[in-house]
């Protein structure tokens, strides 16, 4: 069975510098998909960018710095022309104030789902969880 995403298709990975996101970008670039990744801070992208360029010099991989995925309209811009989305970004700060973690995370996810639903190019949306979902805080 083939992939829902066409060969060479563009995949958005949020949180591309995380454990799952970084592994997924390497797998997708190896299979010749184009990847658009997001990170919150520029310094977070250097190691994964270097890893992709070293392993796959002709691979198509771009990283965008997006401090907040819940910013108004940001997901519409990120999703433009994307075939698939792997939503992996999560707040792993372990902030003791859950109001600083949960509502912003839910708002960002809701914005991503709403943008994906409006985007004619999006064929699939994959949501992963964070290890913090299983940690007793």
Brief rundown of the structure:
The protein has helices spanning 19-30, 46-55, 74-79, 102-118; strands at residues 10-14, 34-39, 61-65, 84-87, 124-127. With 137 residues, the chain is α/β, with parallel strands linked by helices. It has a 5-stranded parallel sheet with strand order 3-2-1-4-5, sandwiched between helices.
Structural commentary:
The protein is an alpha/beta fold and about 140 residues long. The chain has a single domain, classed as NAD(P)-binding Rossmann-like Domain (Rossmann fold, 3-Layer(aba) Sandwich), CATH 3.40.50.720. Helices cover about 35% and strands about 20% of the residues. The protein contains 4 helices and 5 strands. The protein has helices spanning about 20-30, 45-55, 75-80, 100-120, and strands spanning about 10-15, 35-40, 60-65, 85, 125. The chain has a 5-stranded parallel sheet with strand order 3-2-1-4-5, with helices on both faces. Helix 1 (about 20-30) runs parallel beside helix 2. The mean pLDDT is about 90. GO terms for molecular function: aldehyde dehydrogenase (NAD+) activity.
